[in-house]
């Protein structure tokens, strides 16, 4: 499949501005009839596929929303979907779910093969290692709105809904410090993700505030799985200088770290504190129970869908960036 035809292509062919093409396609009052007809004719010639037909019926709706996300078995994302569904179904919208398995090539394939003419909008959490987002911009340029949630690309100007990664991380590390831990490591997510960087910065700033050492060997980037956390912790505790606490990018990594420490006979809490980020149900099942920063996953899903419906209902709706706070939950893994 070739690249999407965008309003920029129409503008270039007609030697007029992109904003004029956009207004003509939306049938606004400030575009004269001759220009509108030229734009519609060129759109038809180029097989431009906006989310409404070329006669300017802006209010036409398929009532289909696509959701693209890395995982469906992950507790966090399944909870986000529940929030999305609550809003979508109340407004009589259908959800079409696409799973990337955190693979940027699969993500690209999904987006390139979307039947965008049969979608009113998209909700997307990007893949971990994705560093190219032009395919999302091409969809937006066809007239189909996108709202990003959780994992968001900074370069694209559209609405985004995130948890407060920086302050959540800062609070997690300050909690460890308050409990008496002083040599704190961070097992982080993939380095290219925006929220990975925000959580890392929160970790570093908390250490700096309290005058504690920052050691590069105590910061390990990898994936989000339990196996990643287990491997990361094993690396940390193979070092000559070992940490006495771990802040993990998510609960699955934290639980993996707990397994690795147990295998070495290290007492969690008493000898090494561990705190995660998510509030996965598994955090209350493991022994010792896991301290964490609870993410507002359900609220993120609801707010994302609400913003998308605003974009659909009003094409010139100004994009919003919404950041929702997390909540510190203390359990046994940080009690000495």
UniProtKB/TrEMBL annotation:
UniProt-listed SUPFAM superfamilies: lambda repressor-like DNA-binding domains, Periplasmic binding protein-like I
Keywords: DNA-binding, Transcription, Transcription regulation
CDD domains: HTH_LacI, PBP1_LacI_sugar_binding-like
Database matches in Pfam families: LacI, Peripla_BP_1
Domain HTH lacI-type: from-to ranges: 5-59
InterPro entries: HTH_LacI (IPR000843), Lambda_DNA-bd_dom_sf (IPR010982), Peripla_BP/Lac1_sug-bd_dom (IPR001761), Peripla_BP_I (IPR028082)
Protein name, entry field: LacI family transcriptional regulator
Species whose genome carries this gene: Niabella pedocola
């Amino acid at each position: 499949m070739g690249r999407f035809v965008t309003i920029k292509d129409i503008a270039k062919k007609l030697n007029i501005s992109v904003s004029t093409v956009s207004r003509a396609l939306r049938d606004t009052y400030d575009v004269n009839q001759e220009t509108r007809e030229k734009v519609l004719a060129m759109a038809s010639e180029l097989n431009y596929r906006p989310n409404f037909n070329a006669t300017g019926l802006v209010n036409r709706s398929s009532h289909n929303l696509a959701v693209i996300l890395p995982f469906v078995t992950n507790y966090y994302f399944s909870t986000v979907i529940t929030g999305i569904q609550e809003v979508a179904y109340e407004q009589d919208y259908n959800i079409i779910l696409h799973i990337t398995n955190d693979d940027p090539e699969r993500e690209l394939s999904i987006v390139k093969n979307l039947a965008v003419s049969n979608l009113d909008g998209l909700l997307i959490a990007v893949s971990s290692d994705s560093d190219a987002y032009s395919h999302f911009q091409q969809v937006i340029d066809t007239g189909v709105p996108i709202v990003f949630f959780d994992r968001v690309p900074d370069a694209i100007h559209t609405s985004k809904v995130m948890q407060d990664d920086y302050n959540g991380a800062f609070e997690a590390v300050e909690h460890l410090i308050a409990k008496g831990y002083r040599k704190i490591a961070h097992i982080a997510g993939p380095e290219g993700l925006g929220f990975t960087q925000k959580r890392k910065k929160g970790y570093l700033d908390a250490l700096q505030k309290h005058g504690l050492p920052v050691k590069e060997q105590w910061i390990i980037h990898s994936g989000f799985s339990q196996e990643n956390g287990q491997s990361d912790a094993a690396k940390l505790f193979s070092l000559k200088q070992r940490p006495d606490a771990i802040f993990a990018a998510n609960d699955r990594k934290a639980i993996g770290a707990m397994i690795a420490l147990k295998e070495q006979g290290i007492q969690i809490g008493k000898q090494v504190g561990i705190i995660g980020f998510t509030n996965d149900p598994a955090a209350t099942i493991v022994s010792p129970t896991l301290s964490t920063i609870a993410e507002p996953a359900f609220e993120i899903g609801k707010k994302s869908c609400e913003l998308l419906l605003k974009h659909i209902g009003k094409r010139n709706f100004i994009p919003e960036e919404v950041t929702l706070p997390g909540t510190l939950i203390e359990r046994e893994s940080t009690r000495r």
